[in-house]
Design a protein that fits this description.
The protein is α/β, with parallel strands linked by helices and 382 residues long. The strands form three sheets. The chain has a seven-stranded mixed β-sheet with strand order 2-8-7-6-5-3-4, with helices on both faces. It has a three-stranded antiparallel β-sheet with strand order 9-10-12.
Length: 382
Amino acid sequence: MFAPVYLDHNATTPLDPEVREAMLPYLDARFGNPSSRHEYGRQARAAIEEARARVAASVGAHSTEVIFTSGGSEANNLIIKGAAARLKAGTVATSAIEHPCVREPARQLARRGWQHAEIAVDRDGLIDRAHWRQVLDDRPAIVSVMLANNESGVVQDVAALAAEARRSGALFHTDAVQAVGKIAVDFRALGVNAMTLSAHKVHGPLGIGALVCDKRVDLEPLVAGGGQERNLRSGTENVAGIVGFARACELAAQRLSVDTEHIAELRRQLESGLGAMHAQVFSAAADRLPGTSFFAFDGLDGETLVGKLDRAGFAVASGSACSSVSPEPSRTLLAMGVSAELAKGAIRVSLGRSNSADQVDDFLAALRATLAGLRNLMAVSA
């Protein structure tokens, strides 16, 4: 039995000790409501505004462009529903591999007089440029294409897509939740109107995220009442979470080059071992996040493999954490043209800064043993 090893960093990441340390005062003595006008409130308000500036600086934005939310899902809903509410009904276009918290708001708009167009991807998981041009010819009002996919790790050329979309008159949003802390992300350089962030993907706390949004974008709030966050997200702010988010963003930016090199080397080691086992690694030819590997074995069920590996002491995933309750094959793989049978066998390993070469070797050994056991059972039952 191996010691438990966490290999699911795209789902969430452990809280960095330095982040926890930054949060502690706001869970204890500095407990004030930021809307209060006494000293306790002023301390909390100052902490939020300092954190806002630090989050903005980490992604090349201005502090006035950062709207704190409860996480990535709320931020994605805010930009899609909030922007649509101030526009005449038209077309909202999303890539075929978006996270459900982008896809479902777009589908809701389609029940309210909007059209929802899904932009096709190729076999590598990249935007199909021919279909992209067709979508732009229809002059969509809102376009959302994720910067990096949570399952395959594929990184899109968002800067080029955003430039083309904006020339056609569309508001362009990118979900950058998986990208921050793994690749360089710059709001200005990407040229997008809005971008989504989430703290718990970068060793920050759960339950806090942000929408980075050009101030020229007109949004209707999802939550009304207290007028916080420039009247765009009412509710007493999560001060400790916001402070932790800012510290996590700073640390991620500081450690990016070292982390990327270390994690990329671990993935090379992992995929070398997978190749020896005849795994099919999806999107292997595409630009991917350094620590993400999405693969499958012919004839084997991914959920079964995940369960057996868990019992062997390794935490991996069969796809997106937010869709793991569904027995259906990965929508990302189906959009890439992968057969439903092979897609049902998919496993995602997402490596992090705390993983080691020894852990990767141990995982490969456990995987080999698991595969041998399953194939023996299949041979006997046949």
